[in-house]
Amino acid sequence: MALLEVCNLTKRWPNGRLALDDVSFEMRQGEILGLLGHNGAGKSTILGITLGMVRPDEGEVRIAGHSVQQERSRALSHVGAIYEAAHFYEYLSGWQNLRVLCSLSGWWDEDEAKRILKLVNLADRAHHKTKTYSHGMRQRLALAQALLPLPKCLLLDEPTDGLDPEGIREFREFVLKLRSDLGMTILLNSHLLAEVEQMCDRCVILKQGRKMYEGPVPSQEKKQGVFHLQTRDLAKAKEAISSAGAMLDPVTQLVELPPHLLGHELLKSLVEAGVRVDSWQPHKPTLEEFYLGLTGA
Ligand SMILES: Nc1ncnc2c1ncn2[C@@H]1O[C@H](COP(=O)(O)OP(=O)(O)OP(=O)(O)O)[C@@H](O)[C@H]1O
Questions:
Q1: Which positions fall inside the ABC transporter domain (predicted)?
Q2: Strand blocks (E) in the chain
Q3: I need a surface site. Which of 152, 249, 256, 277 has the fewest CB within 10 A?
Q4: What ipTM is given for this predicted complex?
Protein backbone atom coordinates (compact mmCIF):
# COMPACT_ATOMS: atom_id res chain seq x y z
CA MET A 1 0.00 0.00 0.00
CA ALA A 2 1.25 3.51 -0.81
CA LEU A 3 1.97 5.53 2.35
CA LEU A 4 2.83 8.74 0.57
CA GLU A 5 1.20 9.72 -2.73
CA VAL A 6 2.37 12.75 -4.68
CA CYS A 7 -0.45 13.36 -7.15
CA ASN A 8 -0.14 15.58 -10.23
CA LEU A 9 1.68 18.46 -8.51
CA THR A 10 2.02 21.66 -10.51
CA LYS A 11 3.50 24.78 -8.94
CA ARG A 12 4.18 28.14 -10.58
CA TRP A 13 5.75 30.79 -8.33
CA PRO A 14 4.36 34.36 -8.43
CA ASN A 15 7.42 35.41 -10.49
CA GLY A 16 6.15 33.10 -13.24
CA ARG A 17 8.75 30.38 -12.71
CA LEU A 18 7.33 26.88 -13.20
CA ALA A 19 8.79 24.80 -10.36
CA LEU A 20 6.73 21.62 -10.87
CA ASP A 21 4.91 20.36 -13.92
CA ASP A 22 2.42 17.56 -13.23
CA VAL A 23 4.69 15.47 -10.99
CA SER A 24 3.36 12.23 -9.50
CA PHE A 25 5.00 9.35 -7.64
CA GLU A 26 4.31 7.22 -4.61
CA MET A 27 6.13 5.56 -1.75
CA ARG A 28 5.25 2.18 -0.37
CA GLN A 29 5.38 1.52 3.34
CA GLY A 30 8.93 0.72 4.52
CA GLU A 31 10.76 1.88 1.42
CA ILE A 32 13.55 4.44 1.13
CA LEU A 33 13.07 6.63 -1.91
CA GLY A 34 15.71 9.02 -3.25
CA LEU A 35 14.61 12.31 -4.80
CA LEU A 36 17.24 13.46 -7.28
CA GLY A 37 17.62 16.42 -9.59
CA HIS A 38 19.84 19.37 -10.45
CA ASN A 39 19.75 22.66 -8.49
CA GLY A 40 16.34 24.19 -9.04
CA ALA A 41 14.77 20.93 -10.32
CA GLY A 42 11.90 21.23 -7.82
CA LYS A 43 12.88 18.84 -5.03
CA SER A 44 12.49 21.28 -2.13
CA THR A 45 9.21 22.53 -3.59
CA ILE A 46 7.88 18.94 -3.39
CA LEU A 47 9.03 18.68 0.21
CA GLY A 48 7.51 22.08 1.05
CA ILE A 49 4.16 21.02 -0.44
CA THR A 50 4.33 17.67 1.39
CA LEU A 51 4.86 19.51 4.68
CA GLY A 52 1.95 21.87 3.97
CA MET A 53 4.25 24.91 3.79
CA VAL A 54 3.82 25.56 0.06
CA ARG A 55 0.48 25.53 -1.72
CA PRO A 56 0.41 23.73 -5.09
CA ASP A 57 -1.51 25.26 -8.03
CA GLU A 58 -2.74 21.81 -8.94
CA GLY A 59 -2.60 18.35 -7.41
CA GLU A 60 -2.16 17.19 -3.83
CA VAL A 61 -0.05 15.04 -1.53
CA ARG A 62 -1.70 12.25 0.45
CA ILE A 63 -0.11 10.71 3.53
CA ALA A 64 -1.64 7.50 4.90
CA GLY A 65 -4.68 8.33 2.78
CA HIS A 66 -5.12 11.90 4.11
CA SER A 67 -4.67 14.92 1.88
CA VAL A 68 -2.12 17.43 3.19
CA GLN A 69 -4.07 20.16 1.38
CA GLN A 70 -7.52 19.12 2.75
CA GLU A 71 -6.76 17.54 6.16
CA ARG A 72 -3.42 19.12 7.03
CA SER A 73 -3.01 18.17 10.70
CA ARG A 74 -4.29 14.63 10.21
CA ALA A 75 -1.96 14.01 7.28
CA LEU A 76 1.05 15.64 8.95
CA SER A 77 0.60 13.67 12.18
CA HIS A 78 2.24 10.79 10.28
CA VAL A 79 5.32 12.75 9.18
CA GLY A 80 8.63 13.80 10.70
CA ALA A 81 11.11 15.92 8.78
CA ILE A 82 14.53 17.42 8.60
CA TYR A 83 13.82 20.34 6.28
CA GLU A 84 16.40 23.05 5.64
CA ALA A 85 18.86 23.86 8.45
CA ALA A 86 17.71 22.79 11.92
CA HIS A 87 17.48 25.61 14.46
CA PHE A 88 17.80 25.04 18.19
CA TYR A 89 17.86 27.19 21.31
CA GLU A 90 21.61 27.29 21.81
CA TYR A 91 21.52 27.96 25.56
CA LEU A 92 19.27 24.94 26.21
CA SER A 93 20.38 21.30 26.27
CA GLY A 94 19.41 18.82 23.56
CA TRP A 95 16.90 17.34 25.98
CA GLN A 96 15.34 20.76 26.77
CA ASN A 97 15.20 21.63 23.09
CA LEU A 98 13.30 18.44 22.33
CA ARG A 99 10.94 19.13 25.20
CA VAL A 100 10.20 22.69 24.04
CA LEU A 101 9.85 21.76 20.36
CA CYS A 102 7.61 18.78 21.10
CA SER A 103 5.46 20.79 23.48
CA LEU A 104 4.70 23.18 20.62
CA SER A 105 2.77 20.35 19.02
CA GLY A 106 1.14 19.50 22.36
CA TRP A 107 2.91 16.20 22.87
CA TRP A 108 5.69 15.07 25.20
CA ASP A 109 6.59 11.60 26.44
CA GLU A 110 9.73 11.40 28.55
CA ASP A 111 10.32 7.66 28.07
CA GLU A 112 9.89 7.97 24.32
CA ALA A 113 12.33 10.91 24.22
CA LYS A 114 14.93 8.91 26.17
CA ARG A 115 14.51 5.98 23.80
CA ILE A 116 14.91 8.14 20.69
CA LEU A 117 17.96 9.97 22.09
CA LYS A 118 19.54 6.57 22.73
CA LEU A 119 18.62 5.46 19.22
CA VAL A 120 20.40 8.46 17.64
CA ASN A 121 23.36 8.01 19.98
CA LEU A 122 22.93 11.25 21.91
CA ALA A 123 21.93 9.89 25.30
CA ASP A 124 25.24 10.76 27.00
CA ARG A 125 25.23 14.38 25.70
CA ALA A 126 21.49 14.99 26.03
CA HIS A 127 21.91 17.34 29.01
CA HIS A 128 24.72 19.43 27.50
CA LYS A 129 23.91 22.78 25.89
CA THR A 130 23.39 22.52 22.13
CA LYS A 131 25.91 25.31 21.54
CA THR A 132 28.58 22.72 22.45
CA TYR A 133 27.29 20.22 19.83
CA SER A 134 29.18 19.37 16.64
CA HIS A 135 27.39 19.59 13.28
CA GLY A 136 26.92 15.80 13.32
CA MET A 137 25.37 15.92 16.79
CA ARG A 138 23.02 18.72 15.71
CA GLN A 139 21.87 16.60 12.76
CA ARG A 140 21.25 13.68 15.11
CA LEU A 141 19.26 15.98 17.43
CA ALA A 142 17.28 17.14 14.38
CA LEU A 143 16.63 13.48 13.57
CA ALA A 144 15.48 12.87 17.16
CA GLN A 145 13.11 15.82 16.85
CA ALA A 146 11.77 14.45 13.56
CA LEU A 147 11.17 11.09 15.24
CA LEU A 148 9.07 12.47 18.12
CA PRO A 149 6.24 11.45 18.15
CA LEU A 150 7.05 8.34 16.17
CA PRO A 151 5.97 9.12 12.59
CA LYS A 152 5.31 6.56 9.87
CA CYS A 153 7.18 8.59 7.31
CA LEU A 154 10.36 10.65 7.46
CA LEU A 155 11.31 13.40 5.00
CA LEU A 156 15.02 14.19 4.91
CA ASP A 157 16.16 17.26 2.97
CA GLU A 158 19.91 17.03 2.26
CA PRO A 159 20.45 15.54 5.74
CA THR A 160 24.19 14.93 5.40
CA ASP A 161 25.05 18.36 3.97
CA GLY A 162 28.20 19.62 5.68
CA LEU A 163 28.94 16.39 7.54
CA ASP A 164 32.39 14.81 7.35
CA PRO A 165 32.75 11.28 5.87
CA GLU A 166 32.45 9.64 9.30
CA GLY A 167 29.35 11.72 10.06
CA ILE A 168 27.83 10.77 6.70
CA ARG A 169 28.41 7.08 7.33
CA GLU A 170 27.04 7.30 10.86
CA PHE A 171 23.93 9.15 9.66
CA ARG A 172 23.41 6.61 6.87
CA GLU A 173 23.58 3.76 9.40
CA PHE A 174 20.97 5.48 11.61
CA VAL A 175 18.61 5.89 8.70
CA LEU A 176 18.98 2.27 7.58
CA LYS A 177 18.39 1.21 11.18
CA LEU A 178 15.19 3.25 11.33
CA ARG A 179 13.88 1.30 8.39
CA SER A 180 15.04 -2.13 9.61
CA ASP A 181 14.01 -1.67 13.28
CA LEU A 182 10.93 0.53 12.94
CA GLY A 183 9.78 -0.11 9.36
CA MET A 184 10.01 3.63 8.67
CA THR A 185 9.22 4.95 5.18
CA ILE A 186 11.84 7.52 4.20
CA LEU A 187 12.03 10.16 1.45
CA LEU A 188 15.62 11.29 0.97
CA ASN A 189 16.34 14.48 -0.95
CA SER A 190 20.03 14.37 -1.77
CA HIS A 191 22.62 15.57 -4.27
CA LEU A 192 24.92 12.73 -3.29
CA LEU A 193 24.41 9.97 -5.82
CA ALA A 194 26.58 7.56 -3.82
CA GLU A 195 24.33 8.16 -0.81
CA VAL A 196 21.23 7.36 -2.84
CA GLU A 197 22.92 4.27 -4.29
CA GLN A 198 23.78 2.97 -0.84
CA MET A 199 20.53 3.79 0.93
CA CYS A 200 17.61 3.86 -1.44
CA ASP A 201 15.43 1.12 -2.88
CA ARG A 202 14.02 3.34 -5.61
CA CYS A 203 14.51 6.85 -6.89
CA VAL A 204 12.67 9.64 -8.66
CA ILE A 205 14.70 11.90 -10.96
CA LEU A 206 13.45 15.41 -11.76
CA LYS A 207 14.57 17.77 -14.49
CA GLN A 208 13.25 21.33 -14.63
CA GLY A 209 10.18 20.44 -12.61
CA ARG A 210 9.27 17.32 -14.59
CA LYS A 211 9.63 13.70 -13.56
CA MET A 212 12.11 11.96 -15.85
CA TYR A 213 12.36 8.62 -14.02
CA GLU A 214 10.73 6.63 -11.24
CA GLY A 215 11.98 3.13 -10.52
CA PRO A 216 14.69 1.02 -8.94
CA VAL A 217 18.06 2.70 -8.33
CA PRO A 218 19.62 1.82 -11.71
CA SER A 219 23.04 0.81 -10.41
CA GLN A 220 21.43 -1.95 -8.38
CA GLU A 221 20.41 -3.67 -11.60
CA LYS A 222 22.65 -5.33 -14.16
CA LYS A 223 22.04 -3.81 -17.56
CA GLN A 224 20.83 -6.56 -19.86
CA GLY A 225 23.00 -7.22 -22.90
CA VAL A 226 25.94 -5.00 -21.96
CA PHE A 227 29.31 -6.46 -20.92
CA HIS A 228 32.59 -4.94 -19.89
CA LEU A 229 35.59 -6.41 -21.68
CA GLN A 230 39.21 -6.15 -20.59
CA THR A 231 41.76 -7.26 -23.17
CA ARG A 232 45.17 -6.39 -24.56
CA ASP A 233 44.01 -7.43 -28.07
CA LEU A 234 41.61 -4.57 -28.69
CA ALA A 235 41.87 -4.52 -32.50
CA LYS A 236 41.35 -8.27 -32.79
CA ALA A 237 38.47 -8.10 -30.28
CA LYS A 238 36.80 -5.29 -32.23
CA GLU A 239 36.83 -7.37 -35.40
CA ALA A 240 35.40 -10.49 -33.70
CA ILE A 241 32.75 -8.44 -31.92
CA SER A 242 31.51 -6.66 -35.03
CA SER A 243 31.43 -9.87 -37.08
CA ALA A 244 29.17 -11.34 -34.35
CA GLY A 245 26.83 -8.34 -34.84
CA ALA A 246 27.70 -6.66 -31.50
CA MET A 247 29.24 -3.24 -30.82
CA LEU A 248 32.35 -2.31 -28.87
CA ASP A 249 32.97 1.16 -27.47
CA PRO A 250 36.79 1.35 -27.62
CA VAL A 251 36.95 4.02 -24.88
CA THR A 252 34.78 2.42 -22.19
CA GLN A 253 35.36 -1.13 -23.54
CA LEU A 254 31.64 -1.78 -23.13
CA VAL A 255 30.15 -4.32 -25.52
CA GLU A 256 26.50 -4.06 -26.46
CA LEU A 257 24.97 -7.34 -27.63
CA PRO A 258 22.16 -7.68 -30.16
CA PRO A 259 19.01 -9.34 -28.73
CA HIS A 260 19.71 -12.80 -30.21
CA LEU A 261 23.25 -13.10 -28.80
CA LEU A 262 24.13 -14.20 -25.26
CA GLY A 263 27.18 -13.04 -23.33
CA HIS A 264 28.80 -16.48 -23.04
CA GLU A 265 28.33 -17.07 -26.80
CA LEU A 266 30.23 -13.91 -27.69
CA LEU A 267 32.91 -14.73 -25.12
CA LYS A 268 33.37 -18.13 -26.85
CA SER A 269 33.73 -16.39 -30.24
CA LEU A 270 36.33 -14.02 -28.81
CA VAL A 271 38.39 -16.86 -27.38
CA GLU A 272 38.08 -18.86 -30.64
CA ALA A 273 39.30 -15.76 -32.54
CA GLY A 274 42.45 -15.83 -30.38
CA VAL A 275 41.58 -12.75 -28.29
CA ARG A 276 43.25 -12.83 -24.86
CA VAL A 277 40.32 -11.97 -22.57
CA ASP A 278 41.46 -10.67 -19.17
CA SER A 279 37.95 -10.09 -17.90
CA TRP A 280 34.34 -10.30 -19.19
CA GLN A 281 31.68 -9.03 -16.79
CA PRO A 282 28.02 -8.01 -17.11
CA HIS A 283 27.99 -4.22 -16.91
CA LYS A 284 26.31 -2.49 -13.95
CA PRO A 285 25.95 1.16 -14.87
CA THR A 286 26.50 3.58 -12.01
CA LEU A 287 23.71 5.84 -10.89
CA GLU A 288 25.90 8.73 -12.03
CA GLU A 289 26.04 7.39 -15.62
CA PHE A 290 22.28 6.86 -15.62
CA TYR A 291 21.52 10.24 -14.02
CA LEU A 292 23.77 12.26 -16.33
CA GLY A 293 22.44 10.40 -19.39
CA LEU A 294 18.86 11.15 -18.37
CA THR A 295 19.25 14.77 -17.36
CA GLY A 296 21.56 15.53 -20.29
CA ALA A 297 24.06 17.17 -17.93
N1 LIG B 1 9.89 31.16 -2.99
C2 LIG B 1 10.20 31.09 -4.29
N3 LIG B 1 9.85 32.09 -5.14
C4 LIG B 1 10.14 32.02 -6.46
N5 LIG B 1 10.80 30.98 -7.04
C6 LIG B 1 11.18 29.96 -6.24
C7 LIG B 1 10.91 29.96 -4.83
N8 LIG B 1 11.42 28.83 -4.30
C9 LIG B 1 11.97 28.14 -5.33
N10 LIG B 1 11.83 28.82 -6.49
C11 LIG B 1 12.25 28.39 -7.83
O12 LIG B 1 11.57 27.16 -8.09
C13 LIG B 1 12.43 26.26 -8.78
C14 LIG B 1 12.55 24.97 -7.98
O15 LIG B 1 13.25 25.25 -6.79
P16 LIG B 1 13.54 24.15 -5.66
O17 LIG B 1 14.13 24.86 -4.49
O18 LIG B 1 12.33 23.34 -5.44
O19 LIG B 1 14.65 23.27 -6.38
P20 LIG B 1 15.61 22.14 -5.75
O21 LIG B 1 15.55 20.99 -6.70
O22 LIG B 1 15.26 21.88 -4.33
O23 LIG B 1 17.01 22.86 -5.85
P24 LIG B 1 18.30 22.74 -4.90
O25 LIG B 1 18.88 21.41 -5.16
O26 LIG B 1 19.17 23.85 -5.38
O27 LIG B 1 17.84 22.92 -3.48
C28 LIG B 1 13.76 26.98 -8.95
O29 LIG B 1 13.77 27.56 -10.25
C30 LIG B 1 13.73 28.05 -7.89
O31 LIG B 1 14.49 29.17 -8.29
A1: 4-233
A2: 2-12, 18-28, 32-37, 58-63, 66-67, 79-82, 153-157, 185-189, 202-207, 210-216, 226-231, 247-249, 254-256, 277-282
A3: 249
A4: 0.96
